[in-house]
Amino acid sequence: MSSAVLVRHNLALLAAEPGAVISRIVMPLAVITVLRPLYTAAIGAQGTAYAVTGALVLFSLLGLSIVGGSLLTERAWHTLDRVRTTPARPIEILVGKAVPLGGVLLAQQAVVLSYGVVVLGMRVARPDLLALAALAWAAALLALGALAAMLVRSHSELGAVNDLGALVLTTLGGAMVPLSLLPAWARAIAPASPGYWAMRAMHAAVTGDTSTTLTSAAVLIGVAATAAALAAWRMSRGWGRSRLL
Amino acid sequence: MLIAYDLRKRYGASAALDGFDLTVAAGEICGLIGHNGAGKSTFVEIVTGLTRPDSGTVTIGGLPPARGRHLVGVAPQEIALYVSVTVERNLRLFGGLAGLRGPRLRTAVADTAAALGLTDVLGRPVGVLSGGQRRRAQAAAAMLHRPPLLLLDEPSTGADPLTRAALLTLVREHAANGAAVVYTTHYLPELAELRATLAVAARGRVIARGGQDELLTGHDTLDGLYRSLAVDHE
To answer: Does the residue A140 lie in any domain?
Structure first.
């Protein structure tokens, strides 16, 4: 029940400050339009799918800043501790925060994919698998963003984590440049990046490869479960005297 | 209602609590006083479950803090409200998390806002309120579900006289209805007005406990009391 109360409240918070959300949804469309000719020239007919899924992974990773920033702001406002004094449990607090933000991430992905399909003519063999891949990726992002917000001590630290993390994860994942164009050493360590599994799951869904989509989505859900458990544990411990900077 | 026994909490080399004992009965207002760093806020954090003690026990109505949160209303020292949304949205959130729903929640929000003079600002974002209005909104969020245990950590800091008067009236009413209240402050006149019992904290423990007549005779100020108890600044 606490989660439902918190979901309603967090929706109201998002509605009160919608700027960041709108920009995260609109920006990928411009990037896809610019990158598509480059990708098509580099890898042929698959270029459109790479441009669309790459931009989706890239900008949803930047969406980490919305998740992490939202929770860190609550730490700075002391509202997170205030909510922790209520009967709501840590996992309920995280779910209450994650559901509205997950809705934002899924809306972002739906807009990007619809643009790819309707405007750019991208063909999706298995839309159901693509939806599963998008859900698993959103869950991983939400949990990673929550974990980052529980660990850092300031907005500048969170900014550094988001910037470096998004750059490394998207580059290694093949979201900025197709993996086949990366050096061998980068391809070897790419599976360490959740972005790699997101790209793999989405590409497999676009081409109709059920097995690869499911295994990649399972990895993402494993990342999400691990990060969410760590974030809830960190929240339940509190911060004691190690307050925000 | 509240029993804390031999609480100990260290942060590195510093002992925030060092054998802190305190019992507060239903209907009692306990003024918890002491210099900054005496352990008052750490005690409140432990009772609310925000911090775990290294050792010692706390029970709220017989329950440990983690299971007794529904019995507690807390107004922390820092303002802890969502500044971008309205006062009403904040109150509905904390009332909802305390288990109030539907007409009971609406009535509780309206009644508590009226008691603290917030009715006219219910529709305004917290971010545009004055400091005194924010203090009242914070207190309202702590009290609107009528908790059996009320923890108010320096609730009147920076408040104007009207805010302070409204707050003290509501606290007295809660205690008269059976709530146990822990009220930390540096202002002795407030405790006199509340007819509170006193607990003096120093060096992480309660060093004196009793009625105001017993402890304050011969002292016009807290400093005088602290001097008589040989309490130094931490």
So the answer is: yes
Has the ipTM of the complex gone over 0.90? no
Does the beta-carbon distance from A2 to B70 stay under 8 Å? Answer: no
Most A CBs within 10 Å, among B82, B92, B144, to test the A interface:
B82
Tens of pLDDT, residues B189-234? 888 889 999 999 988 999 889 888 777 776 766 677 777 776 655 4
Residue A187 structural domain: 3-237
pTM for the model: 0.82
Instruction: Answer yes or no: do A13 and B78 touch at CB < 8 A.
Output: no
pLDDT at A63: 67
Any domain includes A67: yes
Residue A215 lies in a domain: yes
What is the total count of domains within chain A? 1
Q: Does residue A245 sit within a domain?
A: no
Give the sheet arrangement for strand B205-210, strand by strand: B72-75, B149-153, B180-184, B29-33, B197-202, B205-210
DSSP B63: B
CB A112 within 8 A of CB A180: no
